[in-house]
Amino acid sequence: MNTLYLSSQNLTHNYNVLRSKIGDKTKFIAVVKANAYGSALAPFAQHLVNLGVDALAVAYTEEGVQLRALGIQIPILVFYPQIPTLHVLVSNSLQPCLYNPTLFLELKKIVLQERHSNYPVHIKYNTGLNRVGFLPNEVNWVLNQIRTAPFAIQSVYSHLAASEEKRPSSLCDKQIKYFQKIKTNHLELETSQPYFHLLNSSGVFNYPEYQFDAVRCGIALHGFANNDKWDNELQPVATLKSSISQIISVKKGASVGYDHGWVAPKDSSIATLPIGHADGIGRHFGSVKTPVYLHNKPVSIVGNVCMDMLMIDITGVACELGDEVEIFGLQHPASEFALHGKTISYEVLTQLGPRIERKWLS
Predict the structure, then answer these.
(1) Are 154 and 194 contacting, i.e. CB atoms less than 8 angstroms apart?
(2) Which run of H or of E encompasses 144?
């Protein structure tokens, strides 16, 4: 009915492209949060482990637990651990990224209760994204706390707010300056030697000279780097296909879909696909007549997308029930589809629902 095909060959290609842009000793942290960006966590993560990534990263503890249940043993960073899940995090040997004093002290209490020592953690600084992270002026608090905490600081990092922005970027330049100062403070005052990282997917392309000791890549592994030139070096991993479940004829002036979403400008043929906004295809994609591909020919989504179905205008295209329709894929990637909805590839991919079958192509 609806299938998301995932190409392991394209994933390998993207990993190799990214690897070629960083140093041999630079660690590669593969980000697989949100079900590996809406794909399929188990095969995606395992393939990356087989390729040789140094660590995996997720958003929340529950995602890390899923990876441990798969038998994955390499380091797993948890970017945004929540206090109620810290006991589970520790029991699964996950590595939390600490981003405020309350979280730091709560984890310290739990690690001491569990009688652990040198528990691996990462320190996140907010240098300008203003989402989570210790502020640069809190570095001395962090360093003072480290002296008595049962932690082994694995890494210190921050996140660029606009890494795809054309250089020079005043915001990114300011963040880099802050981070370099934070690095100096840690190296001067900390007895351990953590590694440092700043770059996400776009940053690997745009700021390779600031790769420090590691990079964190997520969306680029799926074939997207927020810039057409960079995207051309990568290959989309995901292809989403549906199939025609009904074909009807409508007269000129007839409306299609809820709330008269589209009115036929002439006698037309309409096909219905069994996929809708409950599956991640936003309602608005029909109102802007987003193209999808039937027998490699563009046809438009028309009318407001329904919860479980959407309609396409197939006037003049020979087809029958059961014929495949590509929503996005290798030639017309998710980033192109996203533009019609005034959004980004991240959102299109991560909103794909569980009713869509995932097929891993090895």
Answers:
(1) yes
(2) helix 139-146
Return left, alpha or beta for 278; rule: phi > 0 is left, psi -120 to 50 is alpha, else beta.
alpha
Report field, pTM of the whole predicted structure over 0.90: yes
Specify whether 218 is located in the same domain as 245: no
The amino acid at 260: H
Please tell me whether residues 29 and 148 are part of one structural domain.
Answer: yes
**Counted domains in the chain:** 2
Q: Does 233 map to a domain?
A: no
What integer pLDDT is reported at residue 190 of this predicted model? 65
The residues facing 252 across adjacent strands are none
Q: What is the DSSP letter of 334?
A: H
Q: 156 and 255, same structural domain?
A: no
Residue 100's identity, in one-letter code, is: N
Q: Does position 57 have pLDDT exceeding 70, yes or no?
A: yes
Determine the distance from the C-alpha atom of residue 166 to the mean position of all C-alpha atoms in its chain, rounded to a whole number.
22
Looking at the structure, tell me whether residues 205 and 304 fall in a common domain.
no
Would you place residue 362 in the very low, low, confident or very high pLDDT band (cuts 50, 70, 90)? confident
Is there a domain that residue 109 lies in? yes
Same domain, 159 and 187: yes
Give yes or no for a contact between 90 and 114, defined as CB atoms under 8 angstroms apart.
yes
Are 142 and 107 spatial neighbours (Cβ–Cβ below 8 Å)? no
Q: Give the mean pLDDT of 44-57.
A: 98
Whichever domain contains 68, its CATH number is 3.20.20.10
Regarding whether 35 and 68 lie in a shared domain, the answer is yes
The Cα-based distances of 202 to 205, 235, 249 in angstroms read 5, 15, 46
**What digits encode the pLDDT tens for the residues 249-283?**
999 999 999 999 999 999 999 999 999 999 999 99
How confident is the model at residue 19, as a pLDDT?
98
Q: How far apart are CA 22 and CA 26, in angstroms?
A: 6
Q: Do 316 and 309 touch, CB atoms closer than 8 A?
A: no
Query: According to the model, what pLDDT value does residue 192 have?
Result: 75
What are 157-177's pLDDT values in tens digits? 999 999 999 999 999 999 999
Identify the domain containing residue 308 by its residue range.
Answer: 238-361
Q: 102-112, pLDDT tens digit by residue?
A: 999 999 999 99
On whether residue 1 sits in a domain, the answer given is: no
In a domain, 232, yes or no: no
* Amino acid at the residue 86: L
Identify whether residues 198 and 255 lie together within a single domain: no
